[in-house]
């Protein structure tokens, strides 16, 4: 056995290869499952007990040297000059710089992480949706302005098919496919027919949340949103809820946070009010529960929704919404430290 190991070791030390195919052939010959080394390993069980330690050490040494030799041959082949003089002008010049996550992805992941720690699971749905899931199941009246061509992108050949204008459609799909308790967040891209400017775009990103169970109250909603705001913007962040209206919630509210720039003292960013609006929320309207097959006499729930661009603007003070979709690497590189 020792003689076989020594013979194979001398053979390995003399190995040569001129291209990657030959290197691969050597690897298969010596290091594969059916290679020479594995054959020796299989014979190891026949070695007398008093010689196992010595033979085992020599086998390990042989394996290490074979791996080093073949790795060295591969590196030599990879780096050698083939002498053809060819130059690939399409190849990225060195050094290749490392990229970074997009700021919207950074903030979305942070939002998802916060709510996942509060027990919410992730739910996603299609961006091309039907009218039922986007509007009718969410208690939108037939003449609601959101159905107008000035707000929603409709598919001309199929007027009942739209580019979703909010991720509430994902909530509808969750509700129709399972019974409470339901606790989900729904991130995704949405589309609205708006003029592109520094403050608006025809597409943006949302995260919506839904919680349905027995005895869910507005107090539960307020506490969850307070915890979210303090996790996202700092433990000293305060919130306030202002009455509002949404077709799918009743009662409804807009939520403001104390300005994280001036600390609530008042500045140009918060228009000297000390408060900045970040999301809409409310208790799920019983009509929405019933439309999606959930008994409103047994279950209650709350929902909320926020724009990821809005949250990103607040965290990083990006003044122009268009910068998020222009793919200017100078802008994206500013967020390397945020990863």
TrEMBL record:
Its EC number is 6.1.1.20. GO terms for cellular component: cytoplasm. Binds 2 magnesium ions per tetramer. Its cofactor is Mg(2+). It comes from the Bacteria. One of its GO terms (biological process) is phenylalanyl-tRNA aminoacylation. The keyword RNA-binding does not apply. The keyword Oxidoreductase does not apply. This is Phenylalanine--tRNA ligase alpha subunit.
